[in-house]
């Protein structure tokens, strides 16, 4: 009895020593590294992974913010596709916005980048000026400004009045309200423009010289040299901007006063999600909406990567 | 001085915020007890409320009140989030559309235990007490009696040479005078906003026809009613009596976005207590009238509502102090004098007598309106079902679809009715 307990005692101590040894070695090797990572790790697990897992769980419940959630299985996901006309409206608005705002913004950014790439004097100044809207554009202040610009008696209509045109109240007319938001998005072309500008600088000048000698027009040079060599940058910009467009929230929220009106014409997906969660207390359903948005963005990104080998040229 | 922050002030700049925060936090930490108070409303309401809070802090040494106010649309998301986080303020302002939802989910404290001791409700009107009672328990103390009312621009009407009978005008008048008014102003200003999306007005119209919005958690009207409602407004729209759909869509619910304040319409369909707030935003003299009658002499549409309540959060650690503050708020003549009738006419008869003589002209008009309603008013409807707030939004959206011509009244009626049935079914 005594011997046995002594034996266990010894072996336990032995194991404990070995354990301390392993931990000590790990600590010596990587400890300071993890210590420095700690702020990020706490943030990543506490503020990103934790809430994500919680919201995944909540998406299968009827959580209403005020009482304890009950498991409802896939009912939230079923409702999304079978019995929610507002979800369909939000999808239409969001896809319309993505399909028009992203290509327009990229085309505009590329055009300005090419203008700026012609060795202008004072280039840093122009670059800063054109980049500025990218920094400001998503803000509440700009959204309020936009509301004023496109209101019935706003600046835009005052300008149009000079030509005898009586404009409608752009932001509160369902035919135009989404377009004012698309214009607001296109106006923030600065950050893709800077990336395009860097991409244009990478294209070797001798290619253009050779093409000019062969008599290729500027137009032809653009399609045969500039654009193909720029495709990696286009690819990058398209993905980043599309994800941004899917997630767009603030402008629609501020311009429509959080309602997505008129007639749900500015009811962005994220705005609908917000309404369901905090306006109508359906946090469970809103969590399901959030996860579906994540899946949509992931599917779009995967699709882009899969098709990229057919149109993106990495030939350096 | 207590800590108080509004969205507007936040936007007005970091400097103002820092100043507010610094003074507020300083005094809050120096005090023994803190009460947190949250309400929706504009600057006029905030000024009056904070004046009472300061008065309370002066007379009750050691209690500081941290007030916060937001617009109606921002208020509910914020309150829901705070409640979910177990961090709801001690005293919350409640609306009749939401109080049932919050009370039945156990987030509000029943107040019956305080009545007679910390809360003296002896002089309270019986209908105001029953408005705040859910499933037999008292959850909300009425902050004022209000009724649906049309606030109109008397100056603009006089300039156009148009008169309405404030306590007897009808929808036929709205059509006829609306035409005249549009002719007189050359279309620059319409007589009326587009009321087809205003839930209170629709409810009033239904009640005049002997129906109601809800009964026992079901719609108490039919698809044909809503179709006729949209047809009525389509006729007014065609006659130029009301503002264009895009002018109406600018209205997000904040007073300053309403067609009345923006000078696009000569009236707005609101509640009687709002007359005071509208007058602070409009230069012209405002008057008050009933919602239009469906026929001369029609009654039963209006009712004496509680414009809002104060409730105590179920998890408040300072519930006793909160009850004392509410008692101070509704039962002290000094507080009543500061508050006036901005939240409606006081629900306590002694306070009503105390304030009425002191009131300015607009406030007196609002008080007189309530007493003039008399036989025009009907009984108070039961507490609306959960999801009443969602249906209010849905009516606004559907009314826009009709106004912009995306749907005919005949299609919109049955569709909206189905939407109401679905929404109520989901909320049960």
From TrEMBL, chain A:
Domain ABC transmembrane type-1, first and last residues per copy: 91-304
Membrane disposition: Multi-pass membrane protein
InterPro entries found in the cross-reference section: ABC_transporter_permease (IPR051393), MetI-like (IPR000515), MetI-like_sf (IPR035906)
Superkingdom: Bacteria
Alphabetized Pfam families for the sequence: BPD_transp_1 (PF00528)
Cellular component, GO, one term: plasma membrane
Membrane-crossing segments per the record: 34-60, 93-116, 128-146, 178-200, 221-240, 252-274, 286-306
Any one GO BP annotation for this protein: transmembrane transport
Keyword Aminoacyl-tRNA synthetase on entry: no
Keyword list, A-Z: Cell membrane, Membrane, Transmembrane, Transmembrane helix, Transport
Keyword NAD: no
Compartments, record wording: Cell membrane
Family of the protein in this entry: Belongs to the binding-protein-dependent transport system permease family.
PANTHER family per the UniProt record, alphabetical: ABC TRANSPORTER PERMEASE PROTEIN, ABC TRANSPORTER PERMEASE PROTEIN YESP-RELATED
Protein name in UniProt: ABC transporter permease
Organismal lineage: Bacteria, Pseudomonadati, Pseudomonadota, Alphaproteobacteria, Hyphomicrobiales
From TrEMBL, chain B:
GO molecular-function terms, A-Z: ATP binding
Keyword annotations from UniProtKB, A to Z: ATP-binding, Nucleotide-binding, Periplasm
InterPro entries listed in its UniProt record: Bact_solute-bd_prot1, SBP, TAT_signal
Protein's UniProt keywords contain Transport: no
Subcellular location: Periplasm
Record field: transmembrane: none
Nucleotide-binding listed as a keyword: yes
Location, primary (coarse class): periplasm
Pfam families associated with the record: SBP_bac_1
Protein name: ABC transporter ATP-binding protein
Family: Belongs to the bacterial solute-binding protein 1 family.
Lineage top rank: taxon: Bacteria
This protein's GO CC annotations: periplasmic space
């Amino acid at each position: 009895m005594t011997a046995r307990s002594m034996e266990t005692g010894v072996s336990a101590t032995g194991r404990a020593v070995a354990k301390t040894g392993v931990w000590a070695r790990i600590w010596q090797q990587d400890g300071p590294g993890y210590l420095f990572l700690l702020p990020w790790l706490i943030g990543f697990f506490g503020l990103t992974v934790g809430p994500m897992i919680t919201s995944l769980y909540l998406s299968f419940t009827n959580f209403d913010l005020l009482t304890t959630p009950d498991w409802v299985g896939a009912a939230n996901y079923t409702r999304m596709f079978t019995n929610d006309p507002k979800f369909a409206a939000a999808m239409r608005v969001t896809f319309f916005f993505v399909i028009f705002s992203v290509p327009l913004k990229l085309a505009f950014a590329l055009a300005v980048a090419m203008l700026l790439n012609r060795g202008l004097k004072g280039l840093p100044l122009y670059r800063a000026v054109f980049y500025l809207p990218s920094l400001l554009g998503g803000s509440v202040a700009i959204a309020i400004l936009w509301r004023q610009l496109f209101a019935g008696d706003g600046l835009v209509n005052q300008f149009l009045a000079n030509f005898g045109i009586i404009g409608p109240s752009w932001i509160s007319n369902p035919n135009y309200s989404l377009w004012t938001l698309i214009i607001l998005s296109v106006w923030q072309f600065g950050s893709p423009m800077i990336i395009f500008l860097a991409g244009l600088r990478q294209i070797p000048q001798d290619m253009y010289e050779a093409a000019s000698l062969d008599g290729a027009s500027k137009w032809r040079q653009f399609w045969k040299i500039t654009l193909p060599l720029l495709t990696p940058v286009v690819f990058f910009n398209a993905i980043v901007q599309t994800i941004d467009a899917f997630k767009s929230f603030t402008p629609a929220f501020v311009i429509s006063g959080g309602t997505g009106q008129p007639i749900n014409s500015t009811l962005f997906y994220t705005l609908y999600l917000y309404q369901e969660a905090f306006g109508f207390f359906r946090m469970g359903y809103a969590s399901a909406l959030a996860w579906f948005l994540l899946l949509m963005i992931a599917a779009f990104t995967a699709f882009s990567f899969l098709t990229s080998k057919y149109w993106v040229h990495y030939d350096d | 001085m207590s800590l108080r922050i509004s969205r507007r002030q936040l936007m007005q700049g970091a400097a103002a915020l820092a100043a507010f925060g610094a003074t507020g936090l300083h005094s809050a930490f120096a005090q023994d007890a803190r009460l947190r108070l949250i309400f929706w409303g504009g600057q006029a309401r905030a000024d009056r409320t904070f004046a009472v809070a300061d008065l309370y802090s002066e007379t009750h040494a050691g209690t500081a009140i941290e007030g916060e106010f937001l617009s109606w649309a921002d208020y509910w998301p914020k309150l829901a989030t705070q409640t979910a986080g177990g961090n709801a303020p001690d005293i919350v302002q409640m609306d009749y559309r939401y109080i049932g939802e919050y009370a039945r989910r156990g987030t509000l404290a029943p107040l019956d235990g305080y009545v007679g001791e910390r809360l003296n409700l002896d002089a309270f009107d019986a209908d105001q007490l029953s408005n705040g009672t859910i499933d037999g328990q008292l959850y909300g103390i009425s902050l004022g009696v209000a009724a649906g009312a049309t606030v109109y621009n008397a100056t603009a009407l006089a300039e156009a040479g148009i008169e309405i009978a404030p306590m007897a005008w009808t929808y036929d008048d709205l059509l006829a005078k609306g035409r005249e008014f549009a002719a007189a102003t050359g279309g620059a200003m319409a007589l009326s906003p587009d009321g087809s999306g205003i839930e209170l007005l629709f409810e009033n119209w239904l009640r005049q026809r002997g129906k109601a919005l809800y009964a026992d958690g079901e719609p108490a009207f039919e698809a044909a009613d809503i179709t006729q409602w949209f047809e009525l407004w389509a006729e007014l729209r065609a006659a130029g009596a009301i503002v264009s759909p895009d002018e109406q869509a600018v209205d997000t619910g904040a007073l300053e976005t309403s067609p009345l304040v923006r000078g696009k319409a000569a009236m707005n369909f609101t509640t009687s207590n709002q007359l005071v707030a509208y007058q602070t935003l409009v230069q012209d003299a405002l008057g008050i009238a009933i919602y239009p009658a469906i026929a001369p002499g029609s009654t039963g549409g209006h009712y004496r509502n509680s414009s809002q309540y104060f409730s105590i959060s179920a998890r408040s650690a300072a519930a006793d102090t909160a009850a004392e503050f509410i008692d101070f708020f509704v039962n002290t003549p000094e507080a009543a004098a500061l508050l006036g009738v901005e939240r409606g006419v006081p629900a306590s008869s002694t306070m009503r007598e105390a304030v009425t003589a002191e009131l300015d002209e607009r406030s007196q008009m609002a008080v007189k309106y309530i007493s003039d309603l008399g036989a025009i008013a009907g009984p108070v409807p039961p507490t609306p079902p959960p999801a009443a707030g969602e249906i209010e939004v849905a009516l606004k959206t559907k009314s826009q679809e009709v106004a912009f011509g995306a749907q005919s009244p005949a299609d919109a009626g049955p569709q909206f009715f189905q939407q109401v049935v679905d929404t109520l079914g989901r909320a049960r």
